[in-house]
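Recap quiz, item 2
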Amino acid sequence: MLTVNRYKCCYCGACVGVCPTCALELVETWLEVSAECKECSLCTKICPVGALEVKA
Amino acid sequence: MAAKTAAELGLYVVLVEKRQEIGEPIRCAEGVSQRSELRELITVQPDWISTEVNGVRLHSPNNDNVSMTVDNREEVGGYILERKTFDRGLALQAACAGAEVLVKTRATGLIRKDDLCTVSVICQGESLQIEAPLIIGADGVESKVARWAGIDTRLKPEDIMVCAQYLVLDDCIDQEYCEFFFGNRMAPGGYVWIFPKGGRLANVGIGIQGSQSCPGEPIRLLDRFMQRRMPRAKILQIVAGGIPTSGPMNNTTSDGIMLVGDAAHQSDPLTGGGIINAMRAGVMAGQTAGKAISSGDVSTAGLKEYEDRWRSSIGKQIEKRYNAKNFFLKLTDDDLNHLAGSLHGMDISRMDMRDLLWFLFKQNPKLLWNLGVLNLIDKL
Ligand SMILES: Cc1cc2nc3c(=O)[nH]c(=O)nc-3n(C[C@H](O)[C@H](O)[C@H](O)COP(=O)(O)OP(=O)(O)OC[C@H]3O[C@@H](n4cnc5c(N)ncnc54)[C@H](O)[C@@H]3O)c2cc1C
Ligand code: SF4
Ligand code: SF4
């Protein structure tokens, strides 16, 4: 499952731009993850502050 | 700029912004490298400007530096903007020209039927539908408008620069120069910047190539730079972000849709600068909107003028910069040190990329031949 560390996230939207399945949406400061997430980890690699993690 | 231009041409325009405050939080280092470029687009208001700079200083990995001053030539030096007031100022001008502005209003979907687009939005919690013959998607790196229109804007990791930045207060900031620091260990596939903001302030940031990053790497590397260079600096703001560096997209229009700015990947693949290109493209899209609406043809064919105009200007430029980026990515730190050494004492401020590479080639023929520089010069 993709988890968002909301204490770290700077709501920059970089992860939204790389997600291949359009699973992410930034609503002001809140990053939403939809069921479309395929847990590919691409967004975790891109996040400039390390706020995303795919956990088993 | 698209909204302002279209409204000035007499169109009924609705500017939709999902944030509650336009321009907040910023995702930018706020640099415009040539004052004249901004002035050609708009009357610059004093409160949009943090400071003016007169040159840039490039630092190679071994910390040799090469300066490019512009001798205080008014038209050439750069601006460091205050994007919070700048972005709001642009929205204000669009509103003054007659555009409706809806803030805290997020577009959530788009359907096109019978020559009309219906955009679903959530406006301060209320679901609304906005009908329009033409939509301009200027929704940045996160662009959903493009994807709804069936245009693939997904960024591959090698086509995004991932960034972290601090607004810092420090005594050692040179307020005359923008500084760039290169090195594959310091900033893999990118660079560190210090852009003065006036007083003792500066934006100190890092951009690295997405494919060379790992979780949290930009902010970690930025912290390392800060510890080495300005350990006493006080951090007043944190910024993160991603910049498209893919070069020109194949397609930025569809029936009733035009894409502008970062949504159309119009930022400079080499430097990551995107303000001026986004503004220029916004003007072009606004003008094409005016013509397409009055002629009644908003089909892809009717919007071809926009596609052709931005491609032959911004597109050509970013294509070249994309090739240059791929060339520079091949350089090791030793190569960079070597090249910087051969520029010592040179005035490179009047050289364009092609002249600069020719000069470097003449000084370092073996190194640059092996890296295929002639191929690149051919494409510039
Ligand atoms: C760290 C960093 C440093 C940079 N430094 C520079 C620099 O020094 N100089 C330079 O020229 N460029 C710089 N850039 C690039 C520059 O910021 C962008 O190219 C520029 O802002 C692009 O403008 P835009 O209007 O296309 O997109 P944006 O400025 O990103 O605007 C898009 C807007 O659309 C809104 N939006 C998105 N989705 C929706 C939706 N569904 N509904 C409603 N609204 C929506 C967003 O909230 C946002 O306000 C930098 C970028 C970063 C990340
Ligand atoms: S990339 Fe990271 S900081 Fe930016 S919005 Fe996504 S999770 Fe938040
Ligand atoms: S893990 Fe992959 S699919 Fe899931 S949100 Fe991140 S990029 Fe999208």
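Chain B has a mean pLDDT of 93.
The interface with chain A takes residues 18-20, 25, 27, 104, 106, 140-144, 147, 153-157, 160, 162-164, 210, 213-220, 238-242, 244 of chain B (CB under 8 Å).
End of item.
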